[in-house]
What we know:
- By secondary structure, this protein is mainly α.
- The protein folds into two domains: 1-31; 32-66, no CATH class.
- It has three helices and no strands.
- The protein has helices at residues 2-29, 37-46, 52-64.
- It is rod-shaped and about 75 Å long.
Amino acid sequence: xxxxxxxxxxxxxxxxxxxxxxxxxxxxxxxxxxxxxxxxxxxxxxxxxxxxxxxxxxxxxxxxxx
Length: 66
């Protein structure tokens, strides 16, 4: 009987760990793992962090350095 409770607890712990890992995979898969520099630049411009002049200048520099 005592052995049965150990098995139940082990299964509960494994299930919780599995559920946590599964939840973390879902949250990270919704966004790309790494953005390219141009994607980062576009995102920052879209969020209003950069002015149009800054965006154009940095975009030209990135395209030139390719």
